[in-house]
Amino acid sequence: MADCRIIIVDDHPLFRGALKQALKSSLEAAEIIEAGSLDELNDKLGQNSDVDLVLLDLTMPGVHGLSGLLYLRAQYSAIPVVIVSANEDPTVIKRSIDFGASGFVPKSQSVEQIRSAVKKVLDGEIWVPADIDLSVRGDTDAVDLAGRLSLLTPQQVRVLMMLGEGLLNKQIAFKLGVSEATIKAHVSAILQKLGVDSRTQAVIAINKIDAGDWKKIAG
Question: CA–CA separation, 84 vs 86, rounded Å?
Answer without folding.
Answer: 7
